[in-house]
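RETRY 2/3 - previous attempt timed out on the joint model. Re-submitting the same 366-residue input unchanged.
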Amino acid sequence: MADKNKPDGIVLTEAQKRSRRQRSIAIALALGVLVVLFFAVTLVKGPAVLVRPM
Amino acid sequence: MSVVDHNAIDFSPRISEADVADYIALLKPRVMSLVVFTALVGLVMAPGHFHPVLAFTSILCIAVGAGASGALNMWYESDIDALMSRTANRPIPRGRITRPEALAFGMTLAFFAVMTLGILVNWFAGALLAFTIFFYVVIYTIALKRWTAQNIVIGGAAGALPPVVAWTAATGSLSVEPILLFLIIFFWTPPHFWALALFRSDDYARAGVPMLPVVAGADATRLQILLYTIALVAVAVAPWPLGYFDAIYGVTSLILSAVMLTLAIEVYRRRERGQALRATRKLFAFSIFYLFALFATLLIEVVVRAIAPSIW
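RETRY 2/3 succeeded.
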């Protein structure tokens, strides 16, 4: 009979959990910066935001 | 009976313990800082008004593009990085990040840097940034570095392009000034890297990288350093008499170029091991300061011109 207390799948170590959390926060921050950047440029350019010269 | 001993194979997935610092190391932050600085000078020198938000966006995209190039370079070179003392501590040889992770990271950053610059600023700059990344990764890292001793001469073009990308971001076009900035970095690259290669030639030989000192010997490298330094000095000083850059730059470039040339002559003359090593290290260290100081002077010139236009 299988041990009910034994968790299924992979169990992350504390170091793995910590580094994954760090990476997740960094990705979230980078995406946040990207969103803010696109919003700020849209405000700066106004209607000209769609004009993208070669 | 099975031919393969399944008990010996580890089927469990590899869980990364890489933290943010490892990924930052993958971006080559020191190289990135020089790229950002030279790009900033190209941006500030560009004529006309450029909105600060767009200027920030341009510099950010160029920085991320440079970081992507660094990550893709480390992805491809992890085998030789492990063999050289200077690079053995990088995240892939240390086992912190796998090659596929570095490849995915580099490609993602390159994609976002190019697309963001193209969409938010202009596509000329975006295309030029894409070309810069392509040139550094494919032409320099993959094609040239392990094939020819002229690797860093041709590959130096990639490192020289950031101020040109910045100029095109600000103006949407090209001009003589960014090409002069390009030429200064282009001719600066061989003396700088060959000086490094001279005192790291054992490293490069062990890794099988055909750097000039490994292939042609130290004396031939010293001569090439001197010849390229003469070309560099000419390119660095010429914009002043030609009227492209002003007197502050002219005088500074004359003084700095005289020191650079003197150090290159010392490298050429000193052949005894201890003295030769000292002369090479001096040239290498000064070459970094030289490029930084030339570009800083251009920055100062633009600022002075903006604050006190009556002087000009």
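The radius of gyration of chain A is 22 Å. Closing ticket.
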